[in-house]
Amino acid sequence: MSHDPGRLAAHVFLDVVCASNLEYADTPTTAAALELAFERMNEIGVVDAAVRSDGSVDVEITAVVDGAARMLGWLIDELAVRDGVRWDDVVLTIRDALDREN
Fold first, then answer.
1. Residue 57 forms beta bridges with which residues?
2. Top-confidence range, 8-12, 60-64, 83-87
3. What's this model's pTM, rounded to 2 decimal places?
């Protein structure tokens, strides 16, 4: 399998979601799993930061966004097929759920 940063980032996102499972939240094991997942993000090089001469920092996160977009796109496709609805209906449902969380 190729070194595809977006694909690798998507796998790390899945690790974070698994580690954040509410059933195991706030345990030392969860904290260690989250730390490991974020370390993996650094290892695979999907986030690149550079400090400019003026002290500002440039951060390149294209691979992170790509990984998240791939996962969300696949999940939205699957939910639309499963529920027999249009893709944009699933997106609206997700948006409603996000707004209810606050």
1. 51
2. 83-87
3. 0.69
